Amino acid sequence: MTSHASRFTVHFAHAAYNLAERFAARNTGIPHFQTWNRVDLEARIGEAEVLVLSGFWNNDLLPKATKLEYVQACAVGYDNFDQAALQAAGVRLSNSRGVNANAVSEHAIALMLGLTRQIHVARDNQRAAHWRGMISDLSAREDELPGKTLLIYGLGTIGQRIARIARAFDMKVLGVKRDLSVGADVVDELHPPSEFVNLLPRADFVVLSCPLTDETRDLVDAPALASMQTSAYLINVARGGCVDQTALIAALENNRIAGAGIDVTTPEPLEAESPLWGFDNVIVTPHTGGETRQYEDNVIDILLENLTRLARGQDPRNAIV
What we know:
This protein is α/β, with parallel strands linked by helices and about 325 residues long.
């Protein structure tokens, strides 16, 4: 840590994550504080050159951030930031890409295993004190991953790790990404986004691990779901907006796909009346795929690197603006 980084004051803003506490444990000598709600964030946003946050951001805050030089989103997504306004104000923005690569990739695999091994059904049976008997119908039994085909849309840090884990399970992995010059080494086949719908009929599992962009919004819509095998599962650890949720519910109601593992929804929190809660072949988790005991320290690792970079006049890691 270069001594010049101590000129910064860091403002952490999050309702749950103990970012300031974990930052203090590093003994950097860099002044810092944390706010825990939007009201306090707004009241103190003018006190720091560096702001670390995710969901609390509102673009109306920018005129009040008179000292602000750098924002680090403590998540991968940054679609809630007005990039043009930040750039006009001379404020740098980066995300925390890679911070939850282990967590989210493992969560995607856990959803796949949970659905194929019917862990959620077993838990329901446990609560009902019901010992399920043996099953003659092969289609109703638990399944195995080896030999299955996994289609991953989004082969960044998270997607690549999902691919490596899946291949350790002896699965065939198809990857979809824009830049075909990298990523071919972790999949069996690499394809451009234009081939996604054509690849769907081959997949036993479709995993979304991509950012939400104009290109990926409603990526899995009614035609895409109709192209999937009826025995296939959809796993979404990307963003809720990547899936047409109404179309997904219709596909599940009509047994068009085998089921879904969903960590992200539209809106969040998912409404209590949403049909997604009630499907036996769906596992819903509340956008917790990346939330592990290591999360705060992973964010701070990136922050400390970027404070050093900024103090030296260099671009931050994962720079967006």
